Automatic annotation (TrEMBL):
It is an enzyme of class 5 (isomerase). Its EC number is 5.3.1.1. CDD domains: TIM. Pathway: Carbohydrate degradation; glycolysis; D-glyceraldehyde 3-phosphate from glycerone phosphate: step 1/1; Carbohydrate biosynthesis; gluconeogenesis. It is found in: Cytoplasm. Homodimer. It catalyses: D-glyceraldehyde 3-phosphate = dihydroxyacetone phosphate. The keyword Plastid does not apply. Keywords: Cytoplasm, Gluconeogenesis, Glycolysis, Isomerase. One of its GO terms (molecular function) is isomerase activity. The keyword Signal does not apply. The lineage of its organism: Bacteria, Bacillati, Actinomycetota, Actinomycetes, Micrococcales. InterPro entries: Aldolase_TIM, TIM_sf, Triosephosphate_isomerase. This is Triosephosphate isomerase.
Length: 262
């Protein structure tokens, strides 16, 4: 397995043309970068729904996985405006972002609906990028408790149905999203370390990774690397050069990291 999983959700920041151009430039960087070529980093991009086919054409040859920003829990039916996991899999999508704090705040997403979406994604061989995080800034222990409770609530349907697969848990403390700086390093490491320990050896999941998001950008990975499996980037990766800088960081860490071979 790659040492790091690193990618970006483009949210609704860009129009179609800019998403395609961003992907083209990141694909050029990734395809030439030793971190990707040598398997230290598994990169990904999550565009808007209309741009998925064009982004797939550019991303796949460069080794970038492509995700979707949401999914419905049913495979088909009268669900106007929704997209199923079955259709995403048919297109060649590999990841699905689920439960982001913005969807919870703006569109009523809950742990219950996220759990159904996680289950649907796993049923169709997609990797959920499950976003969890405490709302209020506080002590490490309370953050860990809140995140573990949220994680298990979002896995409840998959556990009940015995549906396994691979999952990426994106730890994104709500209070850090959109801020000038990420959460403090010691806080990130405490929570991600606990999440990784909780998921280690999980009987349901074939493989689980814990990445950090929430105002993540260049310079952070070096400080938190011992306790994370990657980063989930937002606006700080809008410049493709910043994505390249983070690949540089990952490569420097990975060169001397025996975990590359695990």
């Amino acid at each position: 397995m790659p040492r790091f999983t690193i990618g970006s959700s483009l949210k609704m920041y860009f129009g179609h043309r800019r998403q395609v151009e961003w992907t083209r430039r990141v694909a050029e960087i990734a395809s030439a970068h030793p971190a990707v070529r040598d398997g230290v980093v598994e990169p990904f991009v999550i565009p808007t729904f209309p741009s998925i086919p064009a982004v797939l054409d550019l991303a796949a040859p460069a080794g970038l996985l492509v995700g979707a920003q949401d999914v419905h829990w049913e495979d088909a039916g009268a669900f106007t405006g929704e997209v199923s996991a079955a259709e995403l899999a048919e297109l060649g999508v590999g990841l699905v972002e689920i439960g982001h704090a913005e969807r919870r705040a703006m569109f009523g997403e809950t742990d219950s609906s996220a759990a159904r979406k996680v289950h649907a994604s796993l049923r169709h061989g997609l990797v959920p990028v499950l976003c969890i995080g405490e709302e209020e800034r506080g002590e490490h222990a309370s953050a860990v408790e809140a995140c573990l409770r949220q994680l298990e609530a979002c896995l409840a349907v998959a556990r009940h149905e015995g549906t396994g697969g691979t999952i990426i848990v994106a730890y994104e403390p709500v209070w850090a999203i959109g801020q000038p700086e990420p959460a403090p390093d010691v806080h990130i490491r405490a929570v991600t370390r606990a999440l990784r320990a909780h998921l280690s050896g999980d009987g349901l999941l074939h493989h689980a990774r814990v990445i950090y998001g929430g105002s993540a950008g260049p310079g952070l990975l070096t400080r938190i690397a011992p306790d994370v499996d990657g980063m989930f980037l937002g606006r700080f990766a809008h410049d493709p050069a910043a994505f390249g800088a983070i690949l540089d960081e990952a490569w420097k860490i990975g060169v001397g990291d025996d975990s590359r071979a695990l």
